[in-house]
Design a protein that fits this description.
mainly alpha; elongated; about 0% strand
């Protein structure tokens, strides 16, 4: 399987379908909240909360874990110069 698809999308990231689903459903949920409450206050609060949650999750996944092992030392044999 190639590392990247022709579109540039990384097939190993499961977040892409979730992001697309949230992007499609956000206006629908906003419409229901505005219709139920009569104003945009709750819609903005929900959108802000989702922004904080998703930003925190993205940051948490992008920071390397301190418990992860260091990368292997790749020394090639015969590559060092001998005097």
């Amino acid at each position: 399987m190639p590392d990247r698809l022709a579109s540039g999308a990384d097939p190993s990231t499961p977040a892409r379908p979730v992001n697309n689903t949230i992007g499609v459903s956000a206006p629908i949920v906003t419409g229901f909240l505005v219709q139920a409450t009569g104003n945009f206050n709750l819609a903005f609060i929900v959108a802000g909360a989702m922004l904080v949650i998703v930003s925190s999750a993205t940051w948490w996944r992008s920071v390397p874990s301190s418990r992860s092992p260091p990368p292997p030392n790749k020394k090639r044999r015969g590559s060092s110069k001998r005097n």
